[in-house]
């Protein structure tokens, strides 16, 4: 028997039109409707926090995990430094010809694709390694290169800085590499020369001579020649000795060598200006 028509609202906010009935059948239908409404309400309560959590996760940048894409600048610099550190060790121990891109990538824990995103080829990698070595053996930025009361004191201090850099383990290892493999790979010498450290030192010493020895007979060409000779005088023999052509010099011997090189250089510069004057006559 059908009863009067009525309305009710389920948890989803939908208005339902039902007939009020009596009897066993109506009670069974009522229980089914009640069970359905209960299950719907339960599903609704469970879905709400999940949806809210998903929204919060999308909105919060701190919860977003980074998968792929470009690394941060700090991470990129750290990766490049790791590649160069591995490449430096391999180049200086195994040699240029025996070092492969595969070996560098494998030891650095990267793919070849990642490597080629940062370096064009092995020659570019070696140039970056040379630059890194030279930057590491340079005096720190805060250390003044030209300091002293007299020209002799300034040159003596500069000679000490040059020796410290040229005789460092990395500089000697690089020199060995260039000497051993430059015949097969001529571009190795170019990679070192292009760094410009020798040109910078020559220009620095030439400007120093121009300021401290204002002699018009010391032309720009003569000052540049004298500066190149100074670098050779200071470095050549101590470098050969540490590479095995004789016993390496002790600190006391190196100090005496620097003093003698500076004295000979200054006397030679003064004689050079007099010789140049005699030639012009």
CATH topology of the domain at 151-280: Tetracycline Repressor, domain 2
Shape: elongated
CATH class bucket of the domain at 151-280: Mainly Alpha
**SS-derived structural category:** mainly alpha
Got a strand count?
A: 2
Strand order, largest beta sheet: 1-2
Question: Gap between N and C termini, in Å?
Answer: 141 Å
What proportion strand? 5-15%
Mean pLDDT: 79
H and E order: EEHHHHHHHHHHH
Query: Low-confidence segments, ≥5 residues, pLDDT <50?
Result: 59-66
Describe the structure.
With 281 residues, this protein is mainly α. Among the domains are: 73-137, Arc Repressor Mutant, subunit A (Orthogonal Bundle); 151-280, Orthogonal Bundle (Tetracycline Repressor, domain 2). 68% of the residues lie in helices and 5% in strands. A two-stranded antiparallel ribbon has the order 1-2. Helix 2 crosses helix 5 (122-137) and helix 5 runs parallel beside helix 8. The relative contact order is 0.06.
Kindly summarize this structure in a few lines.
It is elongated, with a radius of gyration of 39 Å. Helix content is 68%, strand content 5%. Residues 59-66 have low confidence and may be disordered.
Q: Which descriptors apply to this entry?
A:
mainly alpha; Tetracycline Repressor, domain 2; two-stranded antiparallel ribbon; 281 residues
Element layout with pairings:
Blueprint: E1 2-9, E2 15-21, H1 24-59, H2 73-94, H3 101-108, H4 112-116, H5 122-137, H6 151-166, H7 169-181, H8 187-193, H9 197-212, H10 220-242, H11 251-280
Antiparallel strand pairs: 1-2
Helix pairs in contact: 2-3, 2-5, 5-8, 6-10, 6-11, 9-10, 10-11
């Amino acid at each position: 028997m059908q009863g009067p028509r009525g309305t009710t609202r389920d948890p989803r906010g939908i208005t339902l039109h039902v007939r009020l009935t009596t009897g066993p059948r109506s009670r069974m239908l009522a229980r089914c409707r009640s069970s359905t409404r209960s299950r719907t309400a339960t599903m609704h309560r469970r879905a709400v926090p999940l949806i809210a959590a998903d929204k919060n996760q999308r909105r919060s940048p701190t919860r977003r995990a980074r998968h792929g894409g470009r690394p941060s600048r700090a991470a990129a610099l750290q990766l490049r430094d790791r590649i160069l550190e591995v490449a430096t060790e391999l180049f200086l121990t195994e040699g240029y010809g025996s070092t492969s891109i595969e070996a560098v990538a494998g030891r650095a824990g990267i793919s070849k694709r990642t490597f080629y995103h940062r370096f064009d080829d092995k020659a570019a990698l070696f140039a970056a390694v040379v630059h890194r070595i030279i930057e590491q053996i340079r005096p720190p930025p805060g250390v003044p290169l030209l300091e002293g009361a007299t020209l002799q004191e300034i040159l003596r201090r500069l000679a000490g800085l040059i020796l410290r850099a040229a005789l460092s383990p990395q500089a000697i290892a690089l020199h060995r590499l260039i000497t051993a493999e430059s015949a097969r790979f001529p571009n190795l010498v170019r990679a070192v020369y292009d760094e410009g450290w020798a040109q910078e030192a020559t220009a620095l010493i030439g400007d120093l001579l121009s300021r401290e020895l204002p002699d018009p007979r010391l032309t720009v060409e003569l000052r540049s020649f004298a500066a190149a000779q100074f670098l050779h005088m200071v470095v050549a023999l101590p470098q050969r000795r540490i590479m095995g052509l004789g016993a390496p010099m002790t600190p006391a011997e190196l100090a005496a060598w620097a003093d003698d090189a500076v004295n000979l250089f200054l006397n030679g510069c003064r004689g050079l200006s007099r010789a140049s004057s005699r030639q012009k006559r």
